From TrEMBL:
This is Glycosyltransferase. Pfam families: Glycos_transf_2. It comes from the Bacteria. Keywords: Transferase. Residues 4-116 form the Glycosyltransferase 2-like domain. SUPFAM superfamilies: Nucleotide-diphospho-sugar transferases.
Length: 328
């Protein structure tokens, strides 16, 4: 087996058929397998995947419901993978017909790669108007290159660590194992943490421009707000995990700072797409404030109580909680 594609799924009955059809159309000459890691779906996802067993030769479906989260599901998928190269994609997107060949070639050359996300095929025109899309030639992308991570940690030689999404990522299994897989504490933004840990270990993240996926946006304001708020919240685990010690005063000031530009952004809205851009920016900032409180401010307060009053608060569950028990 040359390549193992790991697809983590949860309640994906509305979109997964399109992704599986796209994977069934792949025409790579080398042997590859698809591992669908079911994270406890309660809809018809399992049955839909099983119906593709005759279309995708090396299709495996595994139970990954023991712990909530895509990180856990992807780790379970990699555990059973037979190939030395691993590719990740998502159930609500569609890989292009040459994706397997392109992502495999990029992994073989570089070891750790991410590809672009095109947005024209799966989204209505109003949703992808500027300032949402990034135009490259005649095509609009959600991500046309790797992005920079602007929170600590930072590379020792300056600049920023690069990020890519697990909806279009490839890596050698040996690298995945060396960095310890995905951190299962993260329920969102696990791909950012994964990229940082790989680069901290010395593995450079490369861009694979020809390994393209069609990326699907959420179309309701409520779903969009929830998605970006969660991203904002969970990104705050990164500075807690890697950043230098910061005073409680600075953490609290971060929670309440950065809101001054919101009235100006509201005035700038001229289209439906602009409204979605405003909502996403607001949701991310709200999530960051929420994450800063939950992951950074409250632990500091708990530590202060623990230092001042000893273990008396443990009976009430107020101090020294296991972070995983608190976040799951």
């Amino acid at each position: 087996m040359k390549l193992s594609v790991v697809l983590a799924v949860y309640n994906a009955e509305d979109t997964i058929s399109e992704q599986l059809e796209a994977l069934a159309r792949q025409t790579w000459d080398e042997p590859w397998e698809l591992i669908v890691a079911n994270n406890g779906s309660k809809d018809q996802t399992q049955a839909i995947v099983e119906s593709f067993s005759s279309k995708i030769a090396n299709l495996k479906i595994i139970d990954a419901s023991q712990r909530k989260g895509a990180s856990y599901a992807r780790n379970k998928g990699v555990e059973v993978a037979q190939a030395s190269m691993i590719a990740f994609c998502d159930a609500d997107d569609i890989v292009r017909d040459n994706w397997i060949a392109e992502i495999a070639a990029a992994i073989e050359q570089h070891g750790f790669v991410c590809g672009p996300m095109s947005i024209a095929a799966l989204n209505p025109g109003w949703r992808i108007q500027e300032p949402i899309g990034v135009r490259v030639g005649d095509e609009l992308f959600h991500a046309s290159d790797l992005s920079d991570h602007y929170f600590p940690p930072f590379p020792k030689d300056g600049g920023y660590f690069r990020n890519g999404g697990t909806c279009n990522m490839g890596i050698l299994k040996s690298i995945h194992q060396d960095i310890g897989g995905f951190d299962e504490e993260f329920l969102r933004y696990q791909d950012g943490d994964y990229c940082i840990r790989a680069q901290l270990k010395g593995y450079k993240l490369h861009f694979a421009p020809q390994a393209i996926v069609e990326y699907r946006y959420r179309l309701s304001l409520r779903d969009t707000f929830s998605q970006f708020r969660d991203w904002g919240k969970w990104v705050m685990l990164i500075p807690r995990k890697y950043g230098p010690p910061t005073s409680l005063r600075k953490k609290i000031s971060y929670v309440f700072g950065g809101w001054w530009s919101l009235p100006l952004e509201i005035i700038k809205v001229r289209s439906r797409a602009g409204l979605f851009a405003l909502i996403t920016g607001f949701a991310i900032r709200l999530g960051q404030s929420q994450g800063c409180i939950e992951f950074m401010v409250l632990p500091d307060i708990q530590d202060w109580f623990a230092a001042k009053f000893g273990n008396s608060g443990q009976a009430e569950g107020a101090v020294n909680q296991d972070p995983k028990a608190r976040l799951d």
